Amino acid sequence: MPRSKLTMPDQESTVQDPSNIPAEQSSAVEDSILGAEAAARAVGLFKQYGQGDTAVTALDHVDVEFARHQFTAIMGPSGSGKSTLMHCMAGLDASTSGSAFIGDTDLSQLKDKEMTSLRRDRLGFIFQSFNLVPTLTAAENITLPSDIAGQKVDQDWFEQITNRLGLSNRLSHRPAELSGGQQQRVACARALVSRPEIIFGDEPTGNLDSNSSAEVLAILRTAVDEDDQTVVIVTHDARAASYADRIIFLADGRIVKELHSPAIDEILATMAGIEN
């Protein structure tokens, strides 16, 4: 079931353009943007594809932060920049200018090897296409990032995660022997087992039926509520977004709206207003 509305009051706000904020409020805004409690944040993030007359702006100087121990969904029309924002903040793509931070680490200052280490050691990823290695078992896919890093897997935590995700009897199976929902649960276990600082999901339920989708979303919700995890997903699905504590909406590369613990009809109405 989507997240209960008991833990946070409903709230809706249009994000202000920082240039229009009075001077006496500017320091407070800056403190918010640079908040120490953010698991990830962007400051003036700009992404442009191409040059000259063919240039396309995917992100238009975005300032945003994602709080620790919170589930955030990113929504917006096709081409709004939502996937680009997540990819830049997760170190999967480089911004044209501005900065993306994981904790206090500025990704723009990292070399390629350092970026690879950060993604492997501090982040978890769940993609629409599962990204499992077909020749490895489910158990081997789950521990693969830790094995590559030469890190020992906490066996008690591994067993807890795989039990919770209903994978205990499927660990010796290869991806082709698993359903789509089971494959995505393996991907969730892989993201969770190393206890990353933040889990990024790019349309994590996009290839799943409604039952499997609900299972994966419940897993992510539990990771936040019980394991103090931080989760950020990109989704076009209002039902998926309703599991989040907070939803930010993009249009034309800018954040244009924000909702907290909304109902599905409120999400749909907001998307309709943005698209129209």
Q: What would you say this structure looks like, in words?
A:
36% of the residues lie in helices and 24% in strands. α6 (180-193) packs parallel to α7 (210-227). It has 276 residues and is α/β, with parallel strands linked by helices. It has nine helices and eleven strands. It is globular, with a radius of gyration of 19 Å.
Features:
single chain, 276 residues, alpha/beta, Rossmann fold, seven-stranded mixed beta sheet, four-stranded antiparallel beta sheet, 36% helix, globular
Mean pLDDT: 87
CATH architecture assignment name: 3-Layer(aba) Sandwich
Helix content: 25-40%
Q: Tally the beta strands.
A: 11
Radius of gyration, taken over Cα atoms and rounded to an integer in Å: 19 Å
Care to give the gist of this entry?
This protein has 276 residues and is of the alpha/beta class. The protein is built from 9 helices and 11 strands. The protein has a 7-stranded mixed beta sheet with strand order 1-11-10-4-9-8-7, with helices on both faces. Strands 3-2-5-6 form a 4-stranded antiparallel beta sheet, covered by helices on one side.
